[in-house]
Specification:
Helix content: under 10%
Order of helices and strands: HEEEEEEEHEEEEE
Number of domains: 1
Strand content: 35-45%
Radius of gyration: 19 Å
Largest sheet: 12 strands, antiparallel
Oligomer: single chain
Keywords: Signal
């Protein structure tokens, strides 16, 4: 009888701690996904679970990006036949922590602006925001559009979520080269 009590105690303590999704542990590849399912690997993210949150470190590979000087600023862009996807580093403080119910920091680290391949500059209203969700052991994201001018002024101190739902707009995935992102 005593060994059953001990076994029950051990099992309950093994499974009573925080449970982390496989999607939020280890090192994963970050890929932009074209409408036809073609993936463009752009980097990796390393997740470090700790307590109730998971911190992460996102590293972009240099190979898929070409360097462009657009609208008087340097950009790293993934070049497509008709559109370029230009990385926009989030300019303000974020914690780089996620939970299964809140992937916002990672969404902020995956901001882009698209531009036509033949256009000279960029238009800040062509912002790309990927709305991320956990699907099993991976994270997927669908494209939302936003006006990047929203980020031209810093948020109030302590406001780590300045991009509200009312400025993110549904996008027609068929009208964009890279309407999705996957982290797996």
């Amino acid at each position: 009888m005593r060994k059953y009590v001990i076994l029950s105690f051990v099992i309950s303590h093994l499974f009573s701690g925080p449970v982390f999704s496989d999607a939020l542990s280890g090192t994963k590849v970050v890929s932009l996904v074209a409408g036809d399912g073609t993936k463009v690997a752009i980097g990796s993210v390393e997740f470090q679970p700790s307590g109730d949150v998971t911190s992460y470190r996102l590293t972009f590979d240099q190979a898929p990006f070409a360097h462009h000087f657009l609208s008087m600023r340097p950009f790293k862009c993934v070049e497509g036949p008709q559109k370029y996807w230009c990385l926009v580093p989030y300019p303000y403080e974020i914690r780089r922590e996620v939970t299964e119910g809140d992937l916002t920091d990672l969404e902020y680290d995956l901001l882009f602006i698209w531009k036509g391949a033949a256009e000279y500059g960029i238009n800040m209203w062509n912002g790309v925001y990927y709305d991320l969700v956990i699907e099993g052991d991976r994270i997927t994201g669908s494209l939302r559009e936003l006006d990047m001018d929203t980020l031209s002024a810093p948020p109030a101190p302590g406001n780590f979520r300045p991009l509200s739902a009312d400025i993110l707009h549904e996008a027609d995935p068929d009208s964009h080269w890279l309407p999705g992102v996957v982290i797996e």
